[in-house]
Design the sequence.
């Protein structure tokens, strides 16, 4: 028994599902990459204001952000990546980060209502961990 067919049948591959999958992956990566930045900005902290904006030549490479949030009763809450921790836990976390990265930097985001002692506790934890590159953030107000 012999089947009849064209001498040359072109194969056709539909690329539409593959293109849709690639666009879905790109969209997922774009959304997922912006979540980490949103997590750091999630806390409602009122930063102190500063007169002028400081110009930086090159941005620092992935500093560890420590948020110091004001609680009623002149208490503070310490956060790293939205994880609440005490000062001793903060010190051990900073020590581990220093071991992993010798050039580890720390940025302190302190609420304007927290006492200086609570910010100094974070700075002391950085010193105990051996981290020397410590900075604090402020809100820049418009100079008029």
Sequence:
């Amino acid at each position: 028994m012999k089947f009849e067919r064209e001498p040359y049948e072109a194969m056709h591959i539909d690329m539409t599902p593959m293109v849709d999958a690639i666009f879905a992956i790109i969209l997922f990566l774009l959304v997922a990459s912006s979540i980490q930045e949103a997590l750091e900005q999630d806390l409602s902290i009122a930063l102190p204001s500063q007169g002028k904006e400081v110009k930086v030549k090159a941005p620092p490479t992935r500093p560890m952000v420590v948020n110091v949030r004001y609680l009623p009763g002149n208490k503070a809450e310490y956060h790293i990546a939205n994880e609440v921790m005490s000062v001793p836990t903060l010190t051990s976390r900073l020590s581990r980060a220093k071991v992993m990265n010798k050039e580890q930097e720390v940025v302190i985001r302190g609420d304007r209502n927290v006492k200086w002692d609570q910010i100094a506790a974070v700075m002391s934890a950085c010193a105990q961990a051996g981290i020397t590159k410590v900075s604090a953030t402020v809100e820049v107000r418009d100079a008029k």
Q: What stands out?
A: Residues 25 and 135 are 37 Å apart (CA to CA). The radius of gyration is 26 Å.
